[in-house]
Amino acid sequence: MVKILTTFMGEATSDFLFNSVNIALGAAVEVLLFVAALWLQFRTRRYVAAAYWFLAMAIAVFGTGVADALHVLAGLPYAVTTALWAATLGLIFWRWHHNEHTLSIHSITTRRRERYYWATVFATFALGTALGDLTGVSLHWGFLASGVIFTGVILIPAVAQRSFNLNPIVAFWSAYVVTRPLGASFADYFSKETSIGSAATSCASGLILVILVAYLSRTRSDVQSPSLAEVHRRAPEPGSDLLV
């Protein structure tokens, strides 16, 4: 829920900065937000909900801006930008698995693995932005219809894992990628196809995000159990994959 909310807020916030403020100023704000969040996250030595979700939100905003810039400023069609970011994501996955022999998020116990993880997160945000615009604009599905379709798509990995024993890591990343176009499509619907606007959409989703992250910080219900963490702290054998 929190992940989808960051995609929702990121889309609306980036659109507000680019369309209602100023492209140059909006780009500067997005870059500064991303750099500050990245610095804060890599200053922590373990998982801290506020730092983690601050960076996720910053990547959502910045990733949206980068993906939109390729279309608006460089003139690339959404189909091309979607293919470009899909290839980028595939390359990151390949490098990550080639060097670490696992794509499990429960095995992220080194800085190098964390860098691979955040590079993956960035690519998924940019890919989702392009894909949501491709279906909503280029294919003329509309943002509401796109959001409903992606809501159905995100259920496929869960069903495939539960009923057909799909690899849990494949299931996780498949669902993770879809969170972006899902949240972005609904954000575009509220900010562009209704009278709510991007500013109100960004503020409302930001307030809910702060409440949910505060809840996680207090309850720590999202913290990995020590026993599971210890299992995945062991280095995997070459060519193996850790299943969670």
Could you characterize what this model shows?
This protein has 244 residues and is mostly helical. Helix content is 79%, strand content 0%. The protein contains ten helices and no strands. α2 (23-43) runs antiparallel to α3. The chain is globular and about 45 Å long. The model is unreliable at 235-244 (pLDDT under 50).
| Shape category | globular
- Low-pLDDT parts are 235-244
Helix content: over 70%
Task: Please give the number of β-strands.
Answer: 0
Q: How many H/I helical runs?
A: 10
What is the end-to-end distance? 20 Å
Please identify the structural class as seen in this structure.
Answer: mainly alpha
Strand percentage lies at under 5%
Descriptive keywords:
mainly alpha, 244 residues
Outline the secondary-structure elements.
Blueprint: H1 2-21, H2 23-43, H3 49-72, H4 78-100, H5 111-138, H6 143-153, H7 155-164, H8 168-192, H9 198-219, H10 226-233
Helix pairs in contact: 1-2, 1-3, 1-8, 1-9, 2-3, 3-5, 4-5, 5-6, 5-8, 6-8, 7-8, 8-9
Brief account:
It is built from ten helices and no strands.
